Amino acid sequence: MILAIDPGKNKCGLAILSEAGQVIEKKVKQTEDIFASIAQLIKKHKIQTIALGDSAGGKKIIKKLPTNLKVAYVSEKL
């Protein structure tokens, strides 16, 4: 399972994806509240990989993510 994080200054999008890319769950949280939600989602869905938007917010978030998971930066530029 994959946890996708779309970091923002005030809010962050969180989505759980299957390995095939099917959306299992999604939510929007206040940025200051996401780490409790991330911990719950990792445990609930047995997350193995985190896809993290490469914005400035993503660079701050990565410092607080569990180190035992694979983290991949995803470009947010179109």
How would you portray this structure in words?
With 78 residues, the protein is α/β, with parallel strands linked by helices. 24% of the residues lie in helices and 38% in strands. It has two helices and five strands. α2 (56-62) links the parallel β4 and β5 (70-74). The longest helix is centred in the middle third of the chain and has 12 residues, at 34-45. The radius of gyration is 11 Å and the shape is globular. The mean pLDDT is 90.
> What is the radius of gyration computed over CA atoms, rounded to a whole number of angstroms?
11 Å
Give a quick account of the main beta sheet: strands, pairing sense, barrel closure.
Answer: 5 strands, mixed
DSSP strand count: 5
Supply the number of helical segments.
2
Report the mean per-residue pLDDT as an integer: 90
Share of residues in helices: 10-25%
Give the low-pLDDT segments: none
Span of the ends, CA to CA? 25 Å
Specify the structural class: alpha/beta
Order of helices and strands: EEEHEHE
Shape: globular
| Percentage of residues in DSSP E strands | 35-45%
In spatial order, strands of the major sheet run 3-2-1-4-5
